[in-house]
Amino acid sequence: MTPILDVDLLPGEAEWQRAYVLLGFVIHGHHHGYHKNIIPLARSEPCLKICDHSGVEPVLG
Fold first, then answer.
1. How far, CA to CA in Å, does 15 sit from each of 20, 21, 30?
2. Which keywords belong to this entry (predicted)?
3. In this predicted model, which residue has the larger pLDDT, 59 or 55?
4. Residue range 22-46: average pLDDT?
5. Beta carbons within 8 Å of 37's beta carbon, 6+ residues apart
6. Burial class of residue 49, CB neighbours in 10 A (0-12, 13-18, 19+)
7. Rounded to an integer, what distance in angstroms lies between the CA atom of residue 41 and that of residue 27?
8. DSSP character for 9?
9. Residue 27 contacts by C-beta under 8 Å, 6 or more apart in sequence?
């Protein structure tokens, strides 16, 4: 099982924003590279936490 990233350790807003961009890129690549509509928990859970922290809606896929 792939470990889930612990985003609670991000020190500042710049890191939260960077994590949002990077995870979005990884999720986009997974979705379009594997042509699957299911995003693995190891990628989706941290993305949802980041969205909640930042007050933005998740865009997965």
1. 9, 10, 22
2. Iron, Metal-binding
3. 55
4. 83
5. 31, 61
6. buried
7. 11
8. G
9. 39, 43, 44, 47, 60, 61
Model confidence at 46: pLDDT above 60: yes
Better-predicted residue by pLDDT, 34 or 52: 52
Report whether pLDDT(60) > 70: no
Any idea where the domains of the chain sit in the sequence? Answer: 19-61
| Residue found by looking up tokens 């890191």 in the block | 15
Q: Is the dihedral of CA 46, 4, 7, 18 positive or negative?
A: negative
**In this structure, how many other beta carbons lie within 10 angstroms of the beta carbon of residue 23?**
22
Measured between alpha carbons, how far is residue 61 from residues 10, 13, 26, 32 in Å? 24, 24, 10, 8
